[in-house]
Amino acid sequence: MAKKTGRKKSQLPDFYYEGYLEKRSFKDKTSRKLWACLSGNTLFFFNEKRDNDYLEKLDLYGLISVTDDGSLDPNLDAARFNVQMTNGNIKFTAPSAESRELWKGFIYSVAELQVPSSLNLLPGQFHILKETVQKEKERLANPLTEQSPPTTVRTDMPACYYKVPRLEAELLLEREASKGNLLLRDGKDGRSFAITTKQDLDGSIFRHYRILTKPQGGFYIDVDKPVHFDTLHDLVNYMVEKTKGSLTPLIIEGQYDKNISFISSDNENGERTQQPLPDPAPAREAPMSVTGKMTSDEPELATEENTPAINREEEKEDETHHYISVQIPPTPEPRKILMPPSPAPRKTPPSKPATNSASSDIPEKSKILSNSEIKKQILPAALSELKLKLGQKVKIQD
């Protein structure tokens, strides 16, 4: 059972038959009631009839048989049937026996391109099945009349996809033989794809395979026994795995320049030359602001957070020690600088009021006397004092 590829219900071809079915595959533990639509040779399943995106799909290319299931169902009107595929058995429950016969007829008709004769149907219903077989044959016979792959398919291409024609694809594989021998390219009509391979057997042997798009989504290789795929990636992987690595995708990695350059014109002579892009200047580091701390050789000063209350009070009285934040250029190992504390200003006693305004006007140098001047003032006074004492002694003797 393939998962949805993103194609909308409105983009699918006309439905041959549709209705509710209860589905239970070999992977499902319980049955699910889904809206089933038969478009081409594919069954699409939706949650509800009004839904636009399908949940899953079932390709009927690997159909082996469609048979009745005789097991009882709680709903007496319901009828069961089995669809045997190459990869397992899928059980369906139709709402009625007539609906079961129609589902068996349509599934078998589009898968085998013939109407089964063992069905319990009315003549008009057999006529509808014959018309369905004819429409399916016409659809398969004219695959190129369908629309080209959607844009979403072309944007998600394998790495070995190249927009080259048939001859150039052979030359590319010959020239790049060491990088791969399989590539995907556009078909001649522009609405299909092609696989081109190159192998050596007494010389180069090239093979070209046409890849067609299925109307209900997916791709298949247009050979005698078509092989179907959901995506082009699955197709390329299939070619590599089934050939046991003999075919490898051609992947050419582009070359990239190692230096940036530009075309510059000379303002004087107009000459145009190719110039390399200047190397970017190394980024300069901004200066860092650091707070100085003591080194291991200096005593560490206590900070305000870890200072005891007593020391903190003393510090308030004499706020003489403080830290200084300085800006220093960045170094590999920035050193933290501690500035020495500045001394407190000396307290001076208040000056005494001047007793004599005249004396305050005398210059300070005039108050300082030299030794000679001091002697001149002392000697006369001493002599007069001696004379006075000698005169007193003479009076006493007389």
What is this structure's SSE topology?
Layout: E1 2-3, E2 15-24, E3 32-39, E4 42-46, E5 56-59, E6 63-69, E7 79-85, E8 88-94, H1 97-112, H2 123-141, H3 151-155, H4 166-175, E9 182-186, E10 193-200, E11 204-213, E12 219-221, E13 227-229, H5 232-242, E14 261-265, E15 272-276, E16 288-291, H6 309-317, E17 325-328, H7 357-360, H8 371-397
Antiparallel strand pairs: 1-5, 2-3, 2-8, 3-4, 4-5, 6-7, 7-8, 9-10, 10-11, 11-12, 12-13, 14-15, 16-17
What characteristics describe this protein?
398 residues; alpha+beta; 8-stranded antiparallel beta sheet; 5-stranded antiparallel beta sheet; 17 strands; elongated; disordered N terminus; PH-like_dom_sf
Question: Can you characterise this structure?
Answer:
The protein has helices at 97-112, 123-141, 151-155, 166-175, 232-242, 309-317, 357-360, 371-397; strands at 2-3, 15-24, 32-39, 42-46, 56-59, 63-69, 79-85, 88-94, 182-186, 193-200, 204-213, 219-221, 227-229, 261-265, 272-276, 288-291, 325-328. With 398 residues, it is of the alpha+beta class. The strands form four sheets. It has an eight-stranded antiparallel beta sheet, with helices on one face. Strands 9-10-11-12-13 form a five-stranded antiparallel beta sheet, with helices on both faces. Helix 1 (97-112) packs parallel to helix 2 (123-141). The longest helix has 27 residues, at 371-397. The radius of gyration is 55 Å and the shape is elongated. The relative contact order is 0.07. The model is unreliable at 1-6, 144-153, 292-310, 312-324 and 354-367 (pLDDT under 50).
